[in-house]
Specification:
This protein is an all-alpha fold and 149 residues long. Helix content is 74%, strand content 3%. The protein is built from 3 helices and 2 strands. Strand 1 and strand 2 form a beta hairpin. The chain starts with a helix and ends in a 12-residue tail after the last strand. 7% of the residues are buried.
Length: 149
């Protein structure tokens, strides 16, 4: 193996390890996010989402650099393959991340449905309506009597 090939190979290994590190960090964030979603901690959730965005950006940059090394000179064809242990670990982390993100999406949907129901109830309570006889009703549904003097 020549020096260029060795350097490219070493860089690829380092990038694969960094990518795994980023995915582990994303998994940790997803777990924390799940707890915050359950507890309804919006401010902390916003901060965590910001961290998640930075990690996703970092993962994208690492992958871009990884692809650049793979397409560059000096690497044998099979060098792009992850070693079996790293591949297995990355696959396990990615699968768990997918499952937690699906659960988090369900939690967000449930929270949104609760908000929609609450808003609908608030609209019904705060806006007067009209009964079938055309007379105004108060927010509790009782007839409003207009006694003019």
């Amino acid at each position: 193996m020549n020096e260029v090939s060795s350097n490219a190979s070493d860089r690829l290994i380092a990038l694969n390890e960094e990518l795994l590190e980023v995915y582990r960090a994303l998994l940790s964030v997803a777990r924390k996010k799940q707890g915050l979603l359950v507890n309804g901690s919006i401010k902390e959730l916003e901060s965590l989402i910001s961290s998640e965005e930075r990690l996703l950006w970092r993962a994208g940059k690492v992958e871009e650099e990884r692809q650049s090394v793979l397409e560059g000179p000096g690497l044998p064809e099979s060098s792009g393959d992850l070693d079996p242990k790293t591949q297995e670990t990355l696959a396990a982390v990615a699968e768990e991340l997918i499952q937690i993100n699906k659960a988090n999406m369900d939690l967000v949907r449930q929270a949104l449905q609760q908000v929609e129901v609450s808003l609908e109830l608030a609209r019904k309570i705060t806006s007067p309506g009209y009964g079938s006889d055309g007379k105004s009703e108060d927010s509790a549904g009782a007839k409003v009597v207009n006694k003019q003097v």
